[in-house]
């Protein structure tokens, strides 16, 4: 019996070690906070994206999720967004995870959220500054500490502004902590595109780069010079996964049987489908859903023909992706 227990512990540890480690920076916030983005302070697409991620959470080793990493003035006095997320997502996940583990397995018992250090200040990256200490940037320091103790690559999924990743990279280069940068892999959604929002002449004119262009340009420069690994997805989530999805409430109402599926559908339902475009960052990380990291440059570049090819691939796989999410949503309520 003792030997069997040791074997099971070893197999569990091995399975966990094989899962990609993930850290998420999101501009997500409670969509009841009024603002100018679809009537709320921040685009609620990340809410749908996060629900989708939680339905896939057994595929990842989630090390941290930072939310409200945004520059919107509404957040200077809005409530604690970690408290909101830990209730909004936490309770839904807690209700669904029992059956998810019974029917699929490998899901962590809980997923926790922390509020971004820039949520209230709306601070933007200062390209003239050396960030030699992280005293005022606790959620940047949290990722630093996670990387310090990790023996594996941490995949930093960037769903919004690049301010916090830029501060961390600056800190590491200022303090000659290249060992930390060697353990980080940045995967960004739509911080560059010549096809959508941006143009060939101005590919940076997209939402997640306009939020803090200085941070965006700094990371792109460091990636091009080889200091960091940075995968630019472009708009392939929006114009591949989302545009290629099934359409209509008849299909998406099926998700509402589970708590996470309901959040997925209702987070941002527009144009007859769910907008969860940031999810491209974790689907490319999984690598077997049409587009993988091998299909994207690791130096921050995003050539138009590459983005178009990857967009087309995700378009082809989109219905399969959504059916997998639906399968998991159903598994969350299947006895």
UniProtKB/TrEMBL annotation:
Record domain Cellulose-binding Sde182 nucleoside hydrolase-like: where: 41-189
Entry coiled-coil feature ranges: none
UniProt signal peptide: 1-17
One annotated GO molecular function: hydrolase activity, hydrolyzing N-glycosyl compounds
Keyword Lipid biosynthesis: no
Record's keyword terms, sorted: Signal
Protein name (database record): Cellulose-binding Sde182 nucleoside hydrolase-like domain-containing protein
Species of origin: Flavobacterium flevense
Lineage of the species this protein comes from: Bacteria, Pseudomonadati, Bacteroidota, Flavobacteriia, Flavobacteriales
